[in-house]
Amino acid sequence: MITPLIGISKSIIKINELIKHVANTGLNVLITGETGVGKEVVAQKLYAESTRATKNFVKINCAALPETLLESELFGYKKGAFTGADKNRPGKFQTADKGVLFLDEIGDMPILLQSKMLHVLQSGEFSPLGSDREFKSDVWVIAATNQDLEEKIKNRTFREDLFYRLNIINIPIPPLRKRKEDIPPLIEYFHKSNKLKYPQSQYNEPDSQTLTKLCNYPWPGNVRQLKNSIEKQMVFNSWEKVLEELPRECSETRLNIQEEGNIKGAKSSVKDSTRVLSQFIDISTSSDKLFEDISLKKIKKIASGRVEKEIIIFVLEKVGWNRSRAAQILKISYKALLYKMKEFEVHPPIENEQLNFAHLKN
What we know:
By secondary structure, the protein is α/β, with parallel strands linked by helices. It has 17 helices and seven strands. The model is unreliable at about 250-285 and about 355-360 (pLDDT under 50).
């Protein structure tokens, strides 16, 4: 059974639309995203939406096998090709003929094997190990990686020509922390899909406080981690158990705390702005009169003047109220500074005024 791509976020809606557009093109697809975001789910959905859905969907994890075994798994081998090869064995390219070959973790494919992969993608032909015969294979190649292939190209650990051959259609999947609106429908889906697996479980919908905590958690393991947590909830019939066992310390959590601080800061700024606004206009007046008094241009001028006044006072205090020096620092004329001080009613302490007077006389 093909797992559906669950979500209501703009990114998931866009991916579902893209799948419909490219499913029958046969163009190679590269799916990118962090571990656990659902790259294989997207690959299976591409397969299910295509005319190849009646043929095989063959998966191979390029990170799970050493180079020699990976090559034999992909292209097969002839009897006697190596010790233990007691019969001919077809590879994944042959098994997936007319269907889909899903190359998971393509970024971990050894560099020497990448050249042979490129040849197959270009010509559709391959040779099993130990054979001189060329075989034809009509496969739709879908690859996936959680790595930055462009960075690997710079480091010469991934072939640029293979990258462009695979990356004809790119489908990036954002992490779950960047599409938190998908968490509630995913929770509901995992509960329904695991009913048979955990028949003793009762569906207890999370209350608003629990759901808020689940949505605020960064889910470093993405959808896979959420799925495991929901299964745990179904086993124990307890959301408290899930919340207790979520890791409390990780870099993403610290990032969330920082983001939360930014949000609080923004809210504080709004309150400060409202407080400043109340100083400019009479908030107690009727709404009609209130909106007549509000002028963004007027408020901007007043706010700018206040900042200007504070800076002038700050500089004057730093230079001991030496107006000539202050004018040089502020890059305005002495006369302009005097005008500003008069406009903003900035008056030096008496002792500093006497010093300035003596300075002018000299």
